Amino acid sequence: MWQALKAHRKDTAATPILELFEQGDRAQDFSVTACGMLFDYSKTAMDRVARKALLGLAQIRGVEPARDAMFAGDKINETEGRAVLHTALRNLDGGPVMVDGEDVMPEVLSTLDRMETFAEAVRSGAFTGQGGKITDVVNIGIGGSDLGPVMAVQALAPYHDGPRTHFVSNIDGAHIADTLRGLDPATTLIIVASKTFTTIETMTNAATARAWMGEAISDPAAQFAALSTAEEKTSAFGIAPERVFGFEDWVGGRYSMWGPIGLSIMLAVGGKAFRAFLRGAQNMDRHFQAADLAENMPVLLALTGMWHHQVCGYPTRAVLPYEQRLLRFPAYLQQMEMESNGKSVQMDGSAVTCVTGPVVWGEPGTNGQHAFYQLIHQGTMPVPCEFLIGAQSHEPELAHHNDLLKANCLAQSEALMLGRDMDEARELMKAAGLEGEELDRQAAHRVFPGNRPSTTLVYPKLTPEVLGQLVALYEHRVFVEGVILGINSYDQWGVELGKVLATKLQPVVTGEASAEGKDGSTQSLVAFLRANG
Ligand code: F6P
């Protein structure tokens, strides 16, 4: 199937994207709406033949039964023997979801209620620190216990009416030092967010925060909460059970902000807005479950990505939100997509038969335009771009900013597709008064190859509900890609080796152990660090 798609790509590569618009209403045909959002994939080289083949691939690879198995609580994370049920965390209507013969929904909903009761107590001042009402919340976590909440809290800034929210993730002491500086320990709540409660970065930062608080107040543990699947470890750390919010191992770290790991989001925006966020995700879940593959937004987003990466061979994709508050969305997607699908072994242990990935990166527009878009427009390697933009902003009084933002977003996808040929560039130079060889030389620098693919996702307004829809859309995209590739998107063994070696290297770095036996480069780096440390 991949071979047939690649052959088709080879046969049609010479047809410019623009020419495809001559065949009927391509904008209509190559776009899909769901949950009030529009996904336009018409500015790509995918034609009807390619789309049909990709949809066939999705069907043959069993996307629909796999999807149903995930929602039903089957243990599709086979390498860890776990169900994959982040969707249960936003199953607000509470229809039964069975794991090992037991309905998990009563527990999910009662934890959500407990989170809300606690969050409202903090927000109202019913729960206080030793110095009074909580003014600041510090979420200590990393990876999935950090990136989702950081991204969402920033995205929902207009809805903040709770305490200030801060995030510490890096083991680099600079992160916690810079965050705690200026905070009052007597009015700060520390949340230790860790699925396993063993992650070295998080446990080290948590201990530092406890020591910082212990210097100022008599009972620091009273101002700690924990979000974890490991309740015995949270109590060993000294956190009282009423401030421990547990979840089950069927919630993957990078899919966990819908449950307790989202407590910092709830503290910032309140229970009602948090539930709206869950509702949005649930709406997308329903669309994903019910829509035909050919009308299914997550499926089409996945297939467009696979067209670009697996078929056209483009190694990266840029995610470019024209929404400043989605500043951390690309970083969040990096973990979601690259930790999920950056694998080289299929579910049965055999090697994958095509490339996996791709590298996901990005920054909000218009900032990116003044940084790396040069390469996107004129570099030698096409970068498929995924633009995101809202129809409305939260700043109606600054409508002219928003109009410019929209114009810039649309201009970029247009420029990527149209490009500028040599004749046009020469005309420009002629108009600037150049002639002869100098005209040709200068014109060459002003040529844009064009025919570069992009997609655009338009949503009404970045509300909590829409944010939920957006994130769920990308989660399901990753799932579909994983199923088609035949890999397990829900484990992450690739992060283990570095952790093991770091533990062994720690005494070497401090000088308690010798670097003997290490490779030459590592020995020399250790020597330099020690000599200059
Ligand atoms: O990076 C590996 C990883 O296990 C991620 O998958 C996870 O989100 C992160 O570490 C943090 O893990 P924990 O929540 O257990 O501290």
List keywords for this structure.
single chain; 533 residues; alpha/beta; Rossmann fold; Phosphoglucose isomerase, C-terminal domain; 3 domains; 6-stranded mixed β-sheet; 5-stranded parallel β-sheet; 12% strand; globular; binds 6-O-phosphono-beta-D-fructofuranose; Phosphoglucose_isomerase_CS; EC 5.3.1.9; SIS_PGI_1; isomerase; monosaccharide binding
Describe this structure in words.
Helix content is 47%, strand content 12%. α17 crosses α18. The protein starts with a helix and ends with a helix. The strands form four sheets. It has a six-stranded mixed beta sheet with strand order 1-2-15-14-12-13, sandwiched between helices. It contains 21 helices and 15 strands. It folds into three domains: 290 residues, 3-Layer(aba) Sandwich (Rossmann fold), CATH 3.40.50; 188 residues, Glucose-6-phosphate isomerase like protein, domain 1 (Rossmann fold), CATH 3.40.50.10490; 39 residues, Orthogonal Bundle (Phosphoglucose isomerase, C-terminal domain). It is α/β, with parallel strands linked by helices and 533 residues long. The mean pLDDT is 97. The longest helix is centred in the C-terminal third of the chain and has 22 residues. The chain binds 6-O-phosphono-beta-D-fructofuranose. 6-O-phosphono-beta-D-fructofuranose (F6P) binds next to loops. Belongs to the GPI family. It catalyses: alpha-D-glucose 6-phosphate = beta-D-fructose 6-phosphate.
